[in-house]
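As agreed, record copied across for absentees:
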Amino acid sequence: MVIGLDCAPPALVFDRLAPVLPNLSSLRRRGAWGPLRSVAPPITVPAWACMVSGRDPGELGLYGFRNRVPDSYALSVADGRAVEAPRVWDVAGAAGKKVAVCYVPLTSPPRPVNGVLVGGFLGAEPPFTHPPELGPRLEARFGPHRPDVDEFRTEDREGLLEALYDTTQLHFDVARALWDEEAPDFAMMVEMGTDRLHHAFWTHLDPSAPDHDPSHPLVREARDYYAFVDAQVGALIERADDDTAILVVSDHGARRMEGGVCVNEQLRRTGWLTLKEEPTAPRALTADMIDWSRTKAWSTGGYYARVFFNVEGREPEGIVAPAALDDARAALARELEALVPETRAARPEALYREVRGLAPDLLVFFGDLRRRALGTVGGEVFAERDDRGPDGCNHDWDGIFIAAGAGVEARGPLEGLSIHDVGVTALALLGLDAPDGWLGKSRA
């Protein structure tokens, strides 16, 4: 039984909120646990897909929620079709194991499995389940399919909390029903609500945040939601018998966002990016604003910056000669790394075993993820807030790993855990070897 809590960080689960998380704390006491190093970039997409496929982002060709469309300057939103590699449940199913998969990101549209699957975050068109007839049956019992809340960058914190409680209850209700009724050999679910809470409530969760007020009522509200999630975990794991191994994991962590860097504005000011018209006010950069005949590089915003060069023969209106790309990347990397201390600009071929699809030419992590990359032009280079709405949280490198139950030695704290260890460990606990080429090692 694998339970995923998106974005859950060690600082909360293992430390600050541990007193109100009795079920997770109990699992730690009787098993093995520790911080789980994510992939680069540490983002829901591609991190969950890497966790369960034994592949890195470059091998999957997934570099974020949106990825380049070949022969254009456009970006498309990833869905389940973007993951071609077999995942843990595919390997288990091929070995005759029955599986139940619920709400794991990038499982919509659903593919056939040896068991049941309820699609997760990203992928909006029905059917949402395998088999297709499972969806209407679940909706009749539990309500409409909702893998995520509608909006989390909002000033309406109370409304968001209500939505989080409703969707989290739905997800665990479905997971418990499928565990009870399908009797799977392997089950996995992912709850996105913890990530959404962090983005909206991080000021109230992190005492180091400048605006943190320990007496603010939302401090208790944020803590209570975590306690609710823990209770839902408890109600699920109590269904596991003595022959069941339990893993609780997250895809990445969370940390305070200390402002942002408007990368495209920096590129505009330094001559790498040229617009058709000078901006009169800050606005999001779109492809139609760019004079491609004079633009060498542009970027997309996010938890990290993806910088693309306008390469001759690769982009529709490329002007950077392929032979000059390496020198151009090195020059721009030095410029961007000088903007904020502890910034790293990496080439994809230095991070991944293979680079598929149209990868960013540079992946830039500002201030070791303390600052977000923003896509706007026309304002200042440095911004205090996210340009997409209220958000006090950026992602961090380490998520959580907890293992307990059958086949797991009670070893206490572990070090050096990798996100790739989760899939290999799950297969080992099923008595199966990981396929050739999978990253990670068993931690059971």
In short: The chain has 13 helices and 23 strands. The mean pLDDT is 95. The chain has two domains: 2-256+395-429, 260-383.
